[in-house]
Design goal:
Blueprint (H helix, E strand, L loop, with lengths): L3 E6 L4 E6 L7 H7 L21 E4 L4 E4 L2 E2 H7 L2 H10 L5 H12 L6 H7 L9 H12 L12 H26 L13 H10 L10 H14 L6 H10 L5 H13 L6 H12 L5 H10 L19 H17 L4 H12 L3 H5 L7 H10 L7 H22 L28
Antiparallel strand pairs: 1-2, 3-4, 4-5
Bound molecules: acetyl coenzyme *A.
Acetyl coenzyme *A (ACO) binds next to loops.
Length: 426
């Protein structure tokens, strides 16, 4: 049975039937009935801006799937590189497809010497690594002029490989610069997360040996952050990409969106909050303060626009945290976090608003225990989300989508004549 909605225009008395397709109604169909009347939806609260077959998200049931595969199974059995392939190609790779993909990504990890020596070295000594990343990703478009051939399949694939491969190198380079350490070249004998850890932490040893438990935990965090359908940064990628800008420029826009504390910066806010609370005894008083603040003071890492249930990623991270703490020692803030979660989940203020821990509640504790400075948290997020951004960019181009260009409801002055300065009032 085809579902539909009938609406009546009370001005003319005419009724129109509009089909419901994939859970949505076409705004173009509505526009035929209501010419010149726009849907007012700041923040896209009730607008589906795209059809997508990449990620399925049911925030009420707490379900997240990439290309149909439950996030729990991917986190348990897959790797970030395999998940990136899945997001970009729609299917899990065969052994030979994966070997080719791994080889392609691994052989593109180096960045042009000028990116590092002239471009990155030009930043102020205390530059924020995320600001450096945003700019460096944009700068890559000037190194790969073929990137403009976005409808040439071979060129598109090349840029996708370059971006996935070079993000960890740029990220580590930004960190090393911001702490005054020399750049570490990629070690292509290492797997994706271990190579990143080597570029981050290597000092004078000939070969950096990472603990496999830490590499695996980081890879799991990358898997969990690889995509999340039409979030703010992915929307930025699609919007900029819709003008047919090259993928580096579009990806830089996505990175910039992720830089904001409401998006990629929330896990940093969680650590600051937990440090401020300090110990478990202070948790009840902090919860009371949040409640008395009536929304002005927020429990960081709690609540989500889409999830009105436990964020499935938070469950997985909580488990991964134990493996990391076994190697690094327990993060003392974990007890504060657990107490906070326990009290909040039994408090009517939080349960009635369906506020549960989101992905950021525990991820910062792991990053901190692994030695990442707070400024690197959004950078780590950007490395992982690059796969999702590129999958959406590619999908958007294949859909031959229109340039993103919303309408507005104008609320400014009516037409008026220009007044020369001498005749303007005080
Ligand atoms: N702590 C306390 N109260 C909260 C919180 C919170 N973390 N989040 C929402 N609320 C309350 C609001 O005050 C509001 O209460 P009211 O109905 O009495 O006014 C109600 O819950 C609904 O909140 P909204 O702001 O309408 O929810 P929205 O969907 O717009 O916000 C958001 C979602 C931004 C994530 C919010 O929950 C928040 O600020 N959380 C803390 C920051 C955070 O953890 N962000 C990370 C998100 S995940 C990511 O981007 C990777």
């Amino acid at each position: 049975m085809t579902e539909s909605i009938t609406i009546t225009d009370n001005r003319s008395g005419e009724s129109y039937e509009i089909p419901v397709v994939n859970g949505g109604v076409s705004a173009t169909d509505w526009a035929k009935i209501l010419p010149g009347i726009w849907f007012y939806d700041p923040g896209f609260m009730s607008t589906a801006a795209a059809e997508s077959s990449i990620t399925f998200l049911d925030g009420t049931a707490g379900i997240l799937r990439y290309r149909g595969y439950p996030i729990e199974q991917l986190a348990e059995s897959s790797t970030y590189l395999e998940v990136a392939y899945l997001l970009l190609n729609g299917e899990l790779p065969t052994e030979s497809q994966f070997e080719q993909w791994r080889h392609d990504v691994t052989s593109h990890t180096f960045i042009h010497e000028n990116v590092r020596k002239r471009f990155l070295d030009g930043f102020h000594y205390d530059a924020h690594p995320m600001g450096m990343l945003v700019s460096a990703v944009a700068a890559l478009s000037t190194f790969y002029l073929d990137a403009k051939d976005i409808f040439d399949p071979a060129s598109r694939q090349k840029q996708i490989i370059r971006l996935i491969a070079k993000m960890p190198t740029l990220a580590a380079a930004a960190h090393r610069f911001s702490v005054g350490m020399p750049f570490v070249y990629p070690d292509n004998s290492l797997d994706f997360p271990s190579n990143f850890l080597s570029m981050m932490w290597k000092v004078a040893e000939p070969r950096f040996e990472t603990d496999p438990a830490l590499s695996r935990a980081l890879d799991i965090l990358f898997i969990l952050h690889a995509d999340h359908e039409q979030n703010c940064s992915t929307t930025a990628m699609r919007v900029v990409g819709s003008s047919h800008a090259d993928p580096y420029s579009a990806c830089a826009a996505a990175c910039a969106a992720l830089y904001g504390p409401r998006h990629g910066g929330a896990n940093e806010a969680v650590i600051r909050m937990l440090s401020e609370i300090g110990s478990m005894e202070n948790v009840p008083a902090f919860i009371s303060e949040v409640k008395a603040g009536h929304g002005h003071m927020r429990l960081q890492g709690f609540g989500h626009r889409v999830y009105k249930n436990y964020d499935p990623r938070a469950q997985i991270i909580k488990k991964a945290a134990d493996d990391v703490f076994e190697v690094t020692g327990r993060n003392p803030l974990l007890d504060v976090a657990l107490k906070l979660e326990e009290i909040a989940l039994s408090d009517e203020y939080f349960t009635s608003r369906r506020l549960y821990p989101n992905v950021d509640f525990y991820s910062g504790l792991i990053y901190q225990a692994m030695g990442f400075p707070l400024e690197m948290f959004p950078v780590l997020f950007a490395i992982a989300r690059t796969a999702g951004w590129l999958a959406h960019w590619q999908e958007m181009l294949d859909q031959d989508s229109k340039i993103a260009r919303p309408r507005q409801l104008y609320t400014g002055a009516d037409a008026r004549d220009y007044v020369p300065m001498a005749r303007r009032g005080a």
